[in-house]
Amino acid sequence: MKMKTTQKQSYPQMNKILNCTKIRINNHIHSLRLLIAVILVMTSHSANANMHASPFEFHFNATGIYQNPYEKGIDDDTNISADLYGRYYGSGYTLNAHIEANSTPREKGMASAISQSNADARTALSSNNKGRLQISEFFLSTGLTNSTVFHIGLLDSTAFFDSSNISNNENTQFIASDFVNNPVIDFPDYSLAGIIEHRFSNTNITKLMISSTNGLADNPSRDYSSLFEINDDKKGIFSILESKWQSGREFFEVGVWSHNGAHQALDNATQTNLKNYGAYLTAGTGFGAQSFELRSGYANEKVSTATGFASIAYELSMRRWVFGTAYGYTKISKYITGRKHSVQEVEVYGRRMIGRKFSITPSIQYFKNPLHDTNIVPNISDEIWAANVRFNIEF
């Protein structure tokens, strides 16, 4: 015992390293447990579905993303996620479920310091920011007429609105959140909502959604009971209307939205009951192995830090490789105190398929004047580079 005590006092730096390593190992073990739990659920149900003609349908994917930022004060980061989607086809209706798991993000990691760098991180966290397994969606879909469908329940609004072909999936396309969904739209997290879709013609479909402004992660407790709390003065109604025209690979969509939950004015802390609203547009085309897309949007600059956005994305699809690049520009509100610089970002990736189910995607990100969490990193460089690699499996 004395010898061990003497060693411990003689090598404080070694003990510090060992303790940090132990913490990181425990975090990864916890993440793997979440992933294994989801896989077990998926495989057990899939086996039953294959043995019998079943109305059940399942889809599973798991993603791991490693980010290495070239910035002092921001740590390299590894995030793991898993998603199990299930459907039950009834007579005239469909039940949809989505079970999701996320690893615990590093406190000073890239995904925590610059959240826009990784859309796949921090999507299933507890109130103390620990990764967890959760039911993210559970909703009913039913056809009202041959051209009208109604969805109601706990759902992800970004799965129905602001969609695109080449910049809408962080598991296989770009990982930066601004290249997955328009950053100026004040979307709630997984929330109680109703959506009605109507097809006016072979080329046009129009959607309307009414939901709570506060989804699962928007409430401090991040529990399901908070979704039903309607007496909170800060909560309100989020509504969005979108119309999309598509013919072949060419599409054009335009939408307007309103978030009437309480917002504080950026330049006046005494004004706490303002509303947010905005509009957006997405268009795309393609020919041969190439695809192009444009995004733009606007939000109320009195309450929204990001008040304007525009981006362009390009994809080249080959037999085993898919290459993508995108540029985004975010205008910062003139009413925000101190900061006035706009945000610019670039991402380039190359996705390589290995077999039919697995892919590996190295990528490079560049950020100029990125929005960042000052509680994690008080000051950062004006320009930040990051080298990343993503692993994905789905079936």
Description:
The protein is mainly β. It contains 3 helices and 16 strands. The protein has one domain (13-292). The chain has helices at 2-10, 12-51, 110-113, and strands at residues 56-69, 77-89, 93-102, 133-145, 148-155, 191-199, 204-212, 237-247, 250-263, 274-287, 290-299, 306-317, 321-332, 343-354, 358-368, 383-394. A 16-stranded antiparallel barrel has the order 1-2-3-4-5-6-7-8-9-10-11-12-13-14-15-16. The longest helix has 40 residues, at 12-51. It starts with a helix and ends with a strand.
Low-confidence sequence ranges = 1-25, 38-52
Give the quaternary arrangement of the chains. Answer: single chain
Number of domains: 1
- End-to-end C-alpha gap: 53 Å
Silhouette:
globular
Could you give a short account of the major beta sheet?
A: 16 strands, antiparallel, barrel
Succession of helices and strands: HHEEEHEEEEEEEEEEEEE
Helix proportion of residues, in percent?
10-25%
Instruction: Find the structural class using helix and strand composition.
Output: mainly beta
Number of strands: 16
Can you tag this structure with a few keywords?
mainly beta, globular, 16 strands, 3 helices, 16-stranded antiparallel barrel, 395 residues
Task: Put the structure in a nutshell.
This protein has 395 residues and is mostly beta strands. The chain has 3 helices and 16 strands.
Secondary-structure topology with pairs:
Blueprint: H1 2-10, H2 12-51, E1 56-69, E2 77-89, E3 93-102, H3 110-113, E4 133-145, E5 148-155, E6 191-199, E7 204-212, E8 237-247, E9 250-263, E10 274-287, E11 290-299, E12 306-317, E13 321-332, E14 343-354, E15 358-368, E16 383-394
Antiparallel strand pairs: 1-2, 1-16, 2-3, 3-4, 4-5, 5-6, 6-7, 7-8, 8-9, 9-10, 10-11, 11-12, 12-13, 13-14, 14-15, 15-16
